[in-house]
Amino acid sequence: MFNVDDKRQSPKHEKIYAAYELAYTIVDFSAGMLFLVGSGLFFLQAI
């Protein structure tokens, strides 16, 4: 999605890129954790 090797990026673009990468990582991590919690609750209720 983003080309980090683009040498034409300004410092402002680099900060924006870093913010998007951080947000993307947080969303991915949150989705994984919520999946694990939901799976655990599903199997706990099934027992």
Structural class: mainly alpha
Our estimate of the beta-strand percent is under 5%
Mean pLDDT level: 85
Query: How many β-strand stretches?
Result: 0
How many DSSP H or I helices?
1
Number of structurally distinct domains: 1
Major sheet summary line: none
Oligomer: single chain
Low-confidence runs: none
**Radius of gyration based on Cα positions:** 18 Å
Overall shape: it is rod-shaped
**N-to-C terminal Cα separation, in Å?**
43 Å
Helix share bin: over 70%
* String of helices and strands: H
Q: What is this structure's SSE topology?
A:
Blueprint: H1 11-46
Can you offer a commentary on this structure?
- The chain has 47 residues and is mainly α.
- It contains one helix and no strands.
- It has one domain (11-47).
- The longest helix has 36 residues, at 11-46.
Tag the structure with descriptive keywords:
mainly alpha, 47 residues
Give a quick rundown of the structure.
The protein is mostly helical and 47 residues long.
